[in-house]
Specification:
Blueprint: E1 41-45, H1 50-61, E2 69-72, H2 101-108, E3 120-123, E4 128-131, H3 134-143, H4 161-176, H5 178-183, H6 188-211, H7 222-238, H8 253-263, H9 274-284
Parallel strand pairs: 1-2
Antiparallel strand pairs: 1-3, 3-4
Helix pairs in contact: 1-3, 1-7, 4-6, 4-7, 6-8, 7-8
The structure holds glutathione.
């Protein structure tokens, strides 16, 4: 884990930033030559990882299961990063049969010396990593494969982009990455600062979701799914393991019901593997849980009725 001189957790930059596009033209960053084609691309994910989880959700929602294959790493992450291995729900590396994810990075870039992370979007034709930044992979999955995918579903519609970007920025910093900044802080002051920001945002979101069904506009967008992957892990992991314990998710009636609604959308429950989530965090961070004991609780029922049908998407047309 990387912390700076103030004991603040600092997340690394993702190294591969090419884009799959409908015609193979370059995207906003990286090189071109990655044309959307059925069967050409492969996703490497961990069920534990909230960033990888976003990409799995987009793959499901857009109906890309038959177009983009997936390999799932073992939930326990040794110091050298993710490995493949026998474990319920984990798979081998279906493309190369590698045992460790860093072999895939080395196969693409023999001199790679950055952090080996999931998710990875991999091009089987060119045998190279396209992109390992989840925020960009979800954008590609949202639109590049529309010739074969559910083109009617747009999670990043042009007219809502500015609002989605604004929500994402706050949610990323204080919630998605905020739980890590809280949990991996190595000074009391860094911990408390991240903790306060996290719970200030959760309070704001709780109010926002009282009269709005979703975060932005009148429909579910990318912003909701990016928040969801942190919320679904909150009580089982972040509350205890990362010391994010001012409140639990279940103490926020709106956020908790919203999380259940998203969880109950078709195909989503299958992307949530609570065993991998808990095994990974509690078992892979000896600096904060030296004995690797995995708590048995809490008992949470994501399938309980969410009761949010009464809210229309735009919060009764009252705007934001
Ligand atoms: N910015 C990246 C972050 C991905 C990331 O940090 N993944 C974590 C797992 S949750 C990882 O692979 N960490 C490897 C390590 O800590 O060595 C993204 O959103 O794709």
């Amino acid at each position: 884990m990387k912390t700076n001189s103030k004991g603040e957790f600092v997340r690394w930059e993702s190294g591969f930033r090419h884009w799959v596009t409908p015609d193979g033209s370059p995207g906003p960053s990286g090189d071109g030559g990655f044309k959307a084609e059925p069967g050409r691309y492969h996703l490497y994910v961990s069920y534990a990882c909230p960033w990888a989880h976003r990409t799995l959700i987009l793959r499901t929602l857009k109906g890309l299961e038959g177009l983009i294959s997936v390999s799932v790493v073992h939930p326990l992450m040794p110091p050298e990063s993710w490995v493949f291995g026998e474990y319920p729900g984990a798979t081998p590396d279906h493309v190369h049969g590698f045992e460790k994810l860093h072999q895939l990075y080395a196969h693409t870039a023999p001199d790679f010396d950055g952090v080996v992370t999931v998710p990875v979007l991999y091009d089987k034709a060119r045998e190279t990593i396209v992109n390992n930044e989840s925020a960009e992979i979800v954008r590609m999955l949202n639109s590049a494969f529309d010739a074969w995918a559910r083109a009617d579903l747009d999670l990043y519609p042009a007219q809502l982009r500015a609002d989605i970007d604004a929500v994402n920025a706050v949610v990323y910093d204080t919630v998605n990455n905020g739980v890590y900044r809280t949990g991996f802080a190595t000074t009391q002051s860094a911990y408390e600062a991240a903790f306060d920001q996290l719970f200030a945002t959760l309070e704001e979101l709780e109010v926002r979701l009282a009269r709005r069904r979703y975060l932005v506009g009148d429909r579910i967008t990318e912003a909701d799914w990016r928040l969801f992957t942190t919320l679904v892990r909150f009580d089982p992991v972040y509350h205890g393991h990362f010391k994010c314990n001012l409140k639990r998710l279940v103490d926020y009636p709106n956020l908790w019901a919203y999380t259940r609604e998203l969880y109950q959308m078709p195909g989503i429950a299958e992307t949530v593997n609570m065993d991998h989530i808990k095994r990974h965090y509690y078992g892979s961070h000896p600096s904060i849980n030296p004995n690797g004991i995995v708590p048995k609780g809490p008992a949470l029922d994501f399938t309980a009725p969410h009761g949010r049908d009464a809210l229309d998407g735009a919060g009764g047309g009252r705007g934001r």
